[in-house]
Amino acid sequence: MLRRTPVLAVLLSLAITVIGVSPTQAVAPNVTAITVSNTTIYPGINTAQRPGSTTITVDATDPSNVAYVDIRDSADTLVLEISMPSGSSSVPWNGRDTGGALVAAGNYTILALSSAKEAAPTTGTVAVSRQHLIAKTFTATIAANRYVYKNVGRCSTLRRPSRRGWAGSLGYYANTRCGAQTWAASRVITIHAVHLPAAERYLDLRVQTYGGAARAKPNSRALVDYWSSSQQTWIAGKFIASKVGWHPGLAASPSALIFNGGWINWRLSTAFKSQYDVAKYTVVMHYDVLSAS
Fold it and tell me: What is the pLDDT of residue 26?
């Protein structure tokens, strides 16, 4: 004979089951901090000084509970949702939205979410700048007689102006007073300077010399080189030709040459019976500046 459970007992059991069991609550991840490797990013520049991306790191009690990282603008609009890689607590962001377009300049809020899209109350921030680099060219022409230092050996002469008579020129005439063939006795040296504009990034610099061999020594050449403040020596030396005209020096990195807030030095020298006339110099530099916004 089958044992029959009283109806009242069945109903009571069902009631207990319904009351005692509730749906699983979605829980936000327990996040202690959201940090970024670069607090401001410059997607339009992306240099060491102005990085174009940042790494977002989420510190959580249980990192596996963090499934997504959301980036929202100041209007709380979602611009990008990034899936957190398994086993990682960091993701990169390069200032672009879901469609790959650069986001607008401004401050962005970073949220960490569970797989159920529950956001942790702890947030992070990152700023995006839309500044970019603008290419510029600096040009300065100075007369040869505008030097900041001279060094003339006992056997030589620095003539002002040169025998060619050019306005502002100098004549570098080695061994006009005696024939000693040592560097100390025969050298003729002048050092020149120019102040460069401030820049976000210096690209290259070259000093061009207008001059040529003196008529008395038609095969003479002269040497142009630059003072390297970083190496504390003269670098990028180049002998310029005898023919009268413009003679480009070697290109150099302005960053290696700059001292005292923007000055650079170069020198022209002759020795060992060489004689050279110089009228002027032109400094040409290419550099980048930051846009206003």
Answer: 75
Give per-residue pLDDT as tens, 70-102: 999 999 999 999 999 999 999 999 999 999 999
Confidence (pTM): 0.80
Copy the structure tokens of residue 45: 């520049």
By residue range, what is the domain housing residue 46? Answer: 31-130
The answer to whether residues 117 and 202 belong to one domain is no
Question: Nearest Cα to 170, choosing from 141, 185, 150?
Answer: 150
In a domain, 197, yes or no: yes
- DSSP notation for 29-75: --EEEEEES-SEE-TTT--SSS-S-EEEEEEESSGGG--EEEEE-TT
Same domain, 282 and 143: yes
Give the pLDDT confidence score for residue 172 in this predicted structure.
98
Looking at residue 121, the DSSP 8-state letter turns out to be S
What is the number of domains present in the chain? Answer: 2
> Which positions of the chain have pLDDT values less than 70?
1-25
206 and 273 belong to one structural domain? yes
CA 13 to chain centre: 74
Residue 24 is predicted with a pLDDT of 52
d(CA 61, CA 255) in angstroms, rounded, equals 47
Q: Is there a single domain that holds both residue 88 and residue 39?
A: yes
Task: Examine the domain organization and report whether 141 and 286 are in the same domain.
Answer: yes
